[in-house]
Each structure stands twice: as C-alpha cells, then as structure tokens.
Amino acid sequence: MKANFIKQVIPVAVFALAVAGAFTTNAMNVRSKTVATVQGYVKLNPQGTSCEQRDMCSTINNGNICTVGLVPGATPLFAKNSANQCTVTVYRP
Description:
By secondary structure, the protein is of the alpha+beta class. The protein has 2 domains: about 1-35; about 35-90, no CATH class. About 35% of the residues lie in helices and about 25% in strands. The chain has 1 helix and 4 strands, in the order αββββ. Strand 3 and strand 4 form a beta hairpin.
C-alpha cells in the first residue's frame, strides 16, 4: 500500500513542480520586457543645457552606454533630468 501511494504522489509532485517553474519563467520574461525606455539626447554643450533628440535608450544599467545609432564608441547619449538638462547617463536597451 505504501508503494502504491508513492507511485501516485510522485507524478503529481513532478507536475506541480513543472507548473511552478513555468509560472516563474513567465514572470521573469514579463519583468524583462518592462525595461524603462527613455529618449536619448546628444549634449550640444558641456553643461547639458542644449540637447538634440536622438535614439531611445534604457535607464537600466547593463554596462553598455547608449550611443548615437547604438554604435559602440559613437557619441554618448544622455537623458534629461528634472531641470531639463541632458546630464543623466543612459544605457543601450
């Protein structure tokens, strides 16, 4: 009787674990798609008070600075701060 109980419970437990894994994976995918994209601007002066709109960038630090055309080594882009100055570092989406 104990062997029958184990044979019936193990498949149910494995199925429950698989369902839990699927929900966890789906939640991670949904979160990764909610990256905060912001408009990237080129600084036209060192103070960042004059800017030119360019490409979309991300606020999530992934180690890759957002640049014009998303080309590595090109002119870096910045987001505007609360004072409307282009001084906030942004990253590649």
